[in-house]
Sequence to fold (746 residues):
Amino acid sequence: MFKLKDLDPRLKLTWCLFLVFTALISRSIVLNGILLGLILVSELLSEKTLKSFKLLSILLLIIGTQVLIINLIFGREGDLLYSWGILEIYSGFITTSILAFLRIGIISLSAFQFGIHTDTMDMAQMLIHWGIPYRYAMLVPMTARFFPVMIGEYQSICDSQSARGVPCDTVVEKLRNLPASILPLMYRAMRISNDAALSVELRGYGRYASRIFQKKINLHPIEGVMIICLIMSFGGVVIKTIL
Amino acid sequence: MKPIIQLDLKELTFPGVKEPALKNIKLNINEGEFIAITGGAASGKSLLLHAITSAAPKFYPCQLSGTVKLADKDVSEIPLFQMADYLGYMMQEPQNQMVCRRVADELAFGIANLNLSPEEIRSRVNEIMDFLGIRAFSDRFTDALSGGQAQKVVLGSILAMQTPILLLDQPTAELDPKTSSELYRHLGQLNREKKVTILVVMDKSGEVLKDAHRVLVMEAGTVKDFLPVVDYQKKYGFGKNNRHAEPIKVDENTDVITLDGASHTYKGSITGCHPLDFNLKKGDFTAVIGQNGSGKSTMLKLIEGLVKPAAGNVELFGTRVTKKNVGALRRRIGFLFQNPDDQIFCSSVKEEIGYVLKNKNPTKDLTEEESNQKIQETLVLIGLDGLEEMHPQRLSRGQRQLLALGSVVISDPELIIADEPTSGLNGPQSQLVMEKLARLSSQGITILLVTHDLAEARDFANRIVVMHNHELVMEFEAAKMDNYIEDLVRLELIEGGDLKCLN
Fold:
């Protein structure tokens, strides 16, 4: 069965870049709509649900509404439909808004899809394949681990400060008492990164020029063909846009 | 027997500090020995392990005179990344040492760096997962692990490297008694069956002494004693807790905390706790015990107003907790957290203790002189006088916990909630913290203590409540704990009827 997680990271990256650049180059609402549809279909085929897109979709709707309002007020494409004082509404605002919304949707959803369906170890291997020394390539999985840890630390610091009488519940309170939450977080970040650095060093990190990965990435011929197809399709879009 | 670790340290001094952090340490540790290391706050236990790994001075810049040899080789000549041939080192906080997102990748991290074949890596990882019983969560994210699981994964990652020496710095600090026993059982097995030399900085339970051969007692950066376990126990005793404060007086007519069917469920339908009915009277000293993940922290969060009850009510000082009054109610409470680093942020000990005075109403009218006097009294109370100007991050873990206690008691709270305040502390440090709490309790302050240490709960509290599977399942008088041993064994709070932890 088709699973995005099982695909080679190079194919997934090419797919992501193809979507992003095509969306940026093409001004066709139909093509952009198809691309967005392809993202959703590929997600559905792989995961049988669009649950992982839920939060991002809500954000996109909020952004989309703002884009619509901005275009409504400031858009100058198409025919003048309505005028009241300095406010002028042109007929092109809907198509411009839809195109902008589709582009933002494609860019964010494709990047998100690549991020959630690509193992960080696979990303590191991909970088190693491109000649980046493993000491640096491995920073990808290490950073990916560091973020959730620091989010947890920040939450527990806020809880702790809030309980001792330093309010950290609302955004305003968080800003007002920033030193009380940020300074411990910085100390924690330094301690964690220090401990992690010593721990990896003592486990032989950097001893040899290369390292072994438990699950090796392997580009199947069909995946290679798909990469070529994607590059050719992108070339087609570029030529069509220029002509 | 052949010595595998030879220490001849004359002095280890940090830049800008006159007094050496380690001095005059000369000792040999033989192959296959199991050594427990103990000592007071800032006695140099962790630093000694750093010196053995050569992290001090290679990683932590310092001046070291003398030699440290591992298997007859001077560690100053061994690059840090090559130390994996000699030893595995597990530091105090396991979550800090994990660098991979998935458990299986973390277990393989070290051996993959050694360029072993994929088959060998797989075989070693499988072997370790079976040995530590962690196969069930091999595919889990490392940031979603509980404290006990994280300890096992970090230990597994080190064990997979099959080093002849293991150094462990308080490996059971955050574990419940059952998980802690399990971990020591694994270590004992490794030492007996595979002749691995083990050095463990022991925690207050002293459970490691069951398997250890000798005990290294550190004091002020040097070796005070290096004795066989039997001699150590004769000389230092079992570190039994003794409450020296006045008896607890409970006012049965005044409620301080009331949980009336309060429950909480986290995002993703994860159970925090089932409906809890709990009452704490004025002057009470109640200990809450339970395994890791039994719901103790959620119960505290409900009381602190950090999470809302999904059902039921929470009352503090006879008033129902709401979003509006939670701030005012919190000002009457002192919270002592498990990890002091979550709250310490000022640049000196004095400033840190005094910071709370600015946020608490009753003391707002204090003059600067009065404030200073109060700070000084508190520093004396917690035993940190003389360290007023020191940066808190330069204190040892035990001292930072005492500092956190100081910043709690300075505001004269009516209720103190202490979440495992002695985790990571050794026997004398724990005794010190608990004695302070007991003294406050005898002055009429209500105490709610969450602990894994059953002896601590029995000796200092007057009442014990037990949480299991997110529910309050038992409640009894602390002095009558012996009558409930069978239940505690059934609830896996004492492993296999091992009662030594209570003696």
In short: The first helix of chain A runs from residue 9 to 25.
